[in-house]
Amino acid sequence: MQNDERLDDYLERFAPADADRVQAARAWAAELHAGSFRASGEPTVTHPERVATLLAAMGMDADSVIAGLLHQALEDTRVTRAAVEERFGERAATLVDELGRMASLKAKNKTIQAAETIRKMLFAMTRDLRVIIVKLADKLDNMRTLKWLPEEERRRIAAECVDVFAPLADRLGMSWMKDELEDLALKEINREAFDQIKLLVSAKKPEREAFLVKARDDIETAATAEGIAVEVMARAKHFYSIYQKMRKRAKSADELYDLSGVRILCDEESECYAVLGIVHGLWKPLDGRFKDYIAMPKSNGYRSLHTTVMAYEGTLLEIQIRTREMHRVAEFGVASHWLYKKGNSSEIVRPEDLGLVNKLKDWGTMLESGSDFLEDIKREILKDSIIVFTPKGDAIELPAGSTPLDFAYAIHSDVGNRCLVAKAGGAIIPLNSELRNTQVVEIVTSATARPNVNWLKSVRTAKARSKIRSWLVSEGNILTIDRNVVARKRDDKEAR
Q1: What is the total count of domains within the chain?
Q2: To 5 degrees, how large is the angle CA 330–CA 292–CA 211?
Q3: Whole-model pTM?
Q4: Is 75 noted as a catalytic residue in this protein?
Q5: Mean pLDDT in each 10-residue stretch from start to end of the chain (496 residues)?
Q6: Of 164, 188, 212, at which residue does a domain stop?
Q7: 76 catalytic residue (yes or no)
Q8: Are 391 and 454 contained in the same domain?
Q9: Which of 76, 163, 269, 372 is the catalytic position?
């Protein structure tokens, strides 16, 4: 999404009545914010105008675009929800109201305020997914104009962006937004690394482009010979991903060679696998670098084949292969469900269609307010996840680092409470061992098995901790204050 796009460029996508509503909201926003200015000196209304443009460019419906235009109205002006509803209807008013509630939160402690804002944002998402999409568009525009704020404030906002908003965009499948949020944040978090990567990428651009043109031509020629029509696109790595590789491999930017890749688009799913064979016929694949996200999609709906090959003169080339439909979902994620629907507000995605939302609902009252909640969110929702299978083939999504006890409680509370041992590959594995992605795990239960206080040290998920703690408290085995175990009952052996 480019900074120079204008809302006018997208109005024709809407039905005439919806286009009129958007224009009315636009005019009202200009009136409400008249005489108000941002830290940059530009009129305040330029921000909601850009947020609305981002939403329109993503293909969001008219209510979402109107919410983008009016998302500051309840906080910064004397406008009421009733006034918004009278002009633009109940759906748009609800979105504006939810966004206003987040912005109005105030606390003496910035960490607690951020945590409570994110808490409200996530649970508002369980009612209407569009709330979080508007909020992400708002965050992106603010990140694009961050330079006008004091340095300490910039660094705090950038850190929050990396910890919460970029991972959230990723969990919603909005890869382009995740990439840009991370790059903008890196500029504030580690300017030296950002400038080093920018200089390297710029210096190697002619060499990289020649390399990618040759790779594209060879792939297209080989695919055409097999009767497969493909579109090959260059895919430059974004700065933050290069930065992560620098840290992981303990190398400087100029020591990294896999700074670019290609993306191959096909018409049919079966052609993806045929093209994979073609690519591996052209170049030798690297062991351990192939991933089939078509057969095993990510939890955000992402589907693609990934492989890394040794191309010309041993240069590493990362390749993604997907259909055009898979590409649309990969780029826009949950927002893709609104794309190309002419702004029809009745065609909205149900929150329960998204696994992330169902997980938030399951948590319910298990999570406390304040900064503890934020840590749970970072650990369980916003970090990488794994898929673990039951012997019957049921897939359970868990945060990376989860143990067999987390798996048992994810199946059912009773399975967790009666867990005796766990097996993988026919062998017993420790209950505190770290599970691997795609592992098949069997939980063996016993009517005499019971949770013990040491289990609290062996679990990673909020659900498992909550259920174990509840059982121990109900049995009188522990005393808790807030979420902390402050005393435990000794058994007979301990008493002696």
Answers
A1: 3
A2: 70
A3: 0.77
A4: yes
A5: 78 94 97 92 95 94 96 89 96 92 58 67 78 94 93 91 89 90 96 90 83 94 97 88 82 62 95 98 93 88 92 89 92 68 44 58 53 65 80 87 95 96 94 92 95 92 89 72 51 42
A6: 188
A7: yes
A8: yes
A9: 76
